[in-house]
Design a protein that fits this description.
Elements (H helix, E strand, L loop, with lengths): L2 H4 L4 H9 L9 H11 L5 H13 L4 E3 L7 E3 L7 E4 L5 E3 L6 H8 L12 E4 L2 H8 L9
Helix pairs in contact: 2-3, 2-4, 3-4
The site of one zinc ion has 6 residues, from loops.
Length: about 140
């Protein structure tokens, strides 16, 4: 299936898709707006929101709104888990294979039809680890 043939890909949508095309990138709508504006200076935040919803609704990109944090978008449609830095909020793809059997075993235990399993690991990213270790313990983050 070629998304570019199936849907009307306006310059705005193409710019957004290009922005989300990089792996391991999970920008917020505002970050997408900042990036797309470099290519399309007249685009508005509202247009970016509308197109993000359109692309999400048509399965061309994915929306991630876990943990009560900011809604983030990504172009990686493959099933994968995430790691979140609890200090700076950075979200990355977890470099492990998803456990297919997790959903299957749950389906045997309840009456739900399970179609999604989102897993988010939490930790400290390398940058924040470096920052934390460069401080003394008494100055550690409250
Ligand atoms: Zn961090
Ligand atoms: Zn991801």
């Amino acid at each position: 299936m070629n998304a570019y043939q199936k849907f009307k890909m306006t310059p705005q949508r193409i710019a957004i898709m290009n922005c989300l095309g990089q792996r391991n990138l999970h920008p917020t709508a505002d970050e997408v707006f900042q990036a797309v504006r470099k290519m399309l200076p007249r685009i508005s935040l509202g247009t970016v929101y509308r197109n993000l919803e359109f692309l999400t609704g048509n399965g061309l990109i994915k929306k991630n709104e876990q943990g009560g944090g900011q809604r983030r978008y990504e172009g990686n449609l493959e099933k994968h888990y995430h790691i979140k830095c609890t200090s700076c909020g950075r979200l990355e793809d977890a470099p492990i294979e998803p456990f297919e059997s997790l959903e299957n075993s749950l389906e045997g235990l309840c009456d739900y039809k399970i179609f999604e399993c989102q897993v988010e690991f939490e930790g400290l990213c390398p940058d924040c680890q470096a920052k934390h270790s460069s401080r003394t313990n008494s100055q550690a983050e409250a």
